[in-house]
Design a protein that fits this description.
three-stranded mixed β-sheet; 11 strands; HSP40/DNAj peptide-binding domain; elongated; single chain; Helix Hairpins; 3 domains; alpha+beta; about 25% helix
């Protein structure tokens, strides 16, 4: 059983949202795997405090935990009448117990939780990377506003509490379970929390260097190209990948240079015919002979 999330974060049950966030960030600085490489215990501590933060930073989840409806992992607590390791009480058994304890008549209706509903939702690459709110049209009419967290991946299932089928006899509604499909992007590729792209540059920018605009998931930034850069050179833009969210640090963006000659004029052709490098250079010298 997971530890109490309030105890894990070292905060009182009356803690504010800011106190929850501050406590998590303070603990994350010493428990993050990047600070403790290879330390399995630190990794487990970080997972535990991340789970506690995820639960308590969500007002709905926190309220359900405080009411005893979910456990410290966010999972629903088995309904009353459930015997761990065995089958639920038969209707007659439970009715007899309730009648004996509360004087209720046998056969009285019992509250039942509504069933969960499953949906699929197509999300653009940038909305999944940056986070967004997207509307989901329901088959029977109506819609749901779905909060897409930053860094959402294909195959991930989002849960909307209480948005499933209504409960019976005053019982709680079920949940909406939404499986996400992320569309491909013509420029960006994702690897973990990092974003990769191919960046075209001119022959002059490759030889002389310069500052060029680079698109990222957060918008266009300017990057310096070192003089004498070859095609295939990979340059990093720190923190320009998937944004920070839920205790996860921001990823990086990697631009792989692709030299594009473009239309060559007579002056460039004449220069190259007359130009001789200061020393012999064979770019194919490392290729196998056979």
């Amino acid at each position: 059983m997971a530890d109490d999330p309030y105890t894990l974060l070292g905060i009182p049950r009356t803690a504010s949202e800011q106190q929850i966030r501050s406590a998590f960030l303070k603990l994350a600085k010493t428990s993050h795997p990047d600070v403790n490489p290879g330390d399995k215990k630190a990794e487990e501590r970080f997972k535990a405090i991340s789970g506690a933060h995820d639960l308590l930073s969500d007002p709905v989840k926190r309220a359900r935990f405080d009411r005893g409806e979910v456990d410290a992992t966010g999972q629903d607590v088995p309904p009353r009448g459930y015997r761990p390791g065995g089958a639920p009480f038969a209707n007659g058994d439970m009715d007899d117990i309730l009648a004996g304890m509360f004087g209720q008549a046998r056969g009285a209706a019992r509250a039942r939780r509504g069933s969960d509903q499953r949906y699929t939702l197509n999300v653009s690459f940038l909305d999944a990377a940056r986070g967004a709110v997207q509307r989901l049209a329901l088959p029977g009419g109506g819609d749901l506003n779905v909060q897409i967290p930053p860094g959402t991946e294909s195959g991930q299932t989002l849960r909307l509490r209480g948005k499933g089928q209504p409960g019976g006899a005053g019982g709680p509604a079920g949940d909406a379970l939404i499986e996400i499909t992320v569309a491909a992007h013509p420029l960006f590729r994702r690897e973990g929390r990092d974003i990769h792209l191919d960046l075209p540059i001119t022959l002059g920018e490759a030889v002389l260097g310069g500052r060029v605009p680079v698109p990222t998931v957060a918008g266009t930034v300017t990057m310096a190209i070192p003089p004498g850069s070859d095609g295939g050179t990979k340059l990093r833009l720190r923190g320009k990948g998937i944004p920070e969210h839920g205790g996860q640090p921001a990823g990086d963006a990697y631009a792989t240079l692709r030299v594009v000659v473009g239309p060559a004029d007579d002056a460039l052709r004449d220069f190259l015919r007359e130009w001789a490098p200061g020393q012999a250079f064979d770019p194919r010298s490392g290729l196998p002979k056979e």
